[in-house]
Amino acid sequence: MAGMELIAGVAQQQTLSPQMQQSLQLLQTPVAELRQMVALELASNPMLEEESGSQEAVAAEDPSEASVGDEKSFTLQDEWRDYMPQATMGSYSAESEERRRFLFESQSTRPTLRNFVIDQAAGLLPAEIRIIELIAGNLDEDGYLRMSVPELSASFGVSELLVEKLLAKVRGFEPPGVAAADLTDCLLLQLERRGEGNGTAARILRHHLPQLARHRYDEIARDIRVPLADVTAAAKLIATLEPKPGRPFAEAPEQGVVPDLIVIPDGEKFVVRLNEDDLPRLRISQEYKDMLAERGGNEELLLYLRDKIRGARVFMRSLQQRQQTLLAIGNQIVDRQEEFFRRGASGLKPLIMAQIADAVGLHVTTISRAVSGKYMETPQGLFEMKYFFTPGFQNSDGNAVSNEMVKEVIREMVERESSHSPLSDQDIVVELEERGLKVARRTIAKYREQLGILPSHLRKSC
């Protein structure tokens, strides 16, 4: 038997600083939860107290604070940029990419579908993980991916071939059916995992879903020429599938959505402000700073005071960083989508996160984390911030038109149609072409489903 020996070695290990931990945690936290975090920090750190004056107190630098501790002087923005490279996708150095990947894999967050999917990408190349992170970030609450491969490719700035490859990987992750384009696709993915991808159930899903929903099993049996018993058995199998893969990760219903940003008309323009109505303004207690300055003989007390003051400074700077980043993103959205705030969905322009990332000097992944789960109150209503990021089409005049505008046009067409002769998807394609918009029929079908509009044969009145 071989002997055992003890070998000593030296290895480098990435350490995530407290500043970055708090900055990222606060950045991805909606304002309703942020209020709870601030209240908890106030309760746990006696050095913090509410400031009744200007919010500028949050950012104030006090000489006595700057001298606390003997750590190296740096700004939070410097460290933010260190972990969030500003270069475009694919241009990181190996070292910076490794640090960034460690950063995101090391965050402890509540279980979400997004994080669950990203965790399964462990072992892939860093560049592939970046794209999977963005795919996961665009999953809706039911686990569906409503963007097409060309739309994803344009948004991420990578080839369609690479997006298709990584999307196929994600669709093979748990939960079964994740990243499906629609209900049929979701159920077929689950059947394929069970080895039933070419069976009777799959044939029914592909061609007879409306009849299945109305329990017209005899019609289905005649159409696909199989015994009625086989159709009934297939229907029972389909009933065991999960139509909403994201259901287990859904959060408990909220009492109401609280906007992080508020857009207010100001003459001919619009102004963005942070929703800080119930957010306490913080400062470090002067009483405790005086105690530290006295430098009495109780060394244990001095160490405690120093650590608590340092923690308070880190929290206030992290909070300020979060607010500045969110406000910068909000201002960019308003600048680029000004027509939406005037006219509604018809004024929405194509916009991808990479454009905002370039404008504010942050990485696209940071933008994705910052807008996720956050809302903006506007003159047109309350909208999730992700709503403003939308791919688009080019009309006959060469101008870009957002997919949300196309959806609005489809909704208006259906509202005006005759109930005795409803528009088919092909009819909508033709009418859009007459308006200078070339949209594929399958895209129309996808948008119609997202709008909750039934197929034309189910909208027809007898």
Proportion of helical residues? 40-55%
Number of strands: 8
CATH topology heading of the domain at 392-459: Arc Repressor Mutant, subunit A
Query: What spatial order of strands do you see in the largest sheet?
Result: 3-2-5-6
CATH architecture of the domain at 392-459: Orthogonal Bundle
Low-confidence stretches: 54-94, 96-109
* Shape label: globular
State mean pLDDT (0 to 100 scale): 78
Full CATH superfamily name of the domain at 392-459: Homeodomain-like
What portion of the residues fall into strands of 2 or more residues? 5-15%
Secondary structure class reads alpha+beta
Instruction: Give the biggest sheet.
Output: 4 strands, mixed
Distance between the termini: 86 Å
Radius of gyration from the alpha-carbon trace, in angstroms: 27 Å
Total DSSP helices: 24
Instruction: Give the CATH class of the domain at 392-459.
Output: Mainly Alpha
Task: Provide structural commentary.
The protein is α+β, with helices and mostly antiparallel strands and 462 residues long. Among the domains are: 199-244; 392-459, Arc Repressor Mutant, subunit A (Orthogonal Bundle). 52% of the residues lie in helices and 7% in strands. The chain is built from 24 helices and eight strands. The protein has a four-stranded mixed β-sheet. Strands 1-4 form a two-stranded antiparallel sheet. Helix 1 (18-27) runs parallel beside helix 17 and helix 14 crosses helix 15. The radius of gyration is 27 Å and the shape is globular. The N and C termini lie far apart (86 Å).
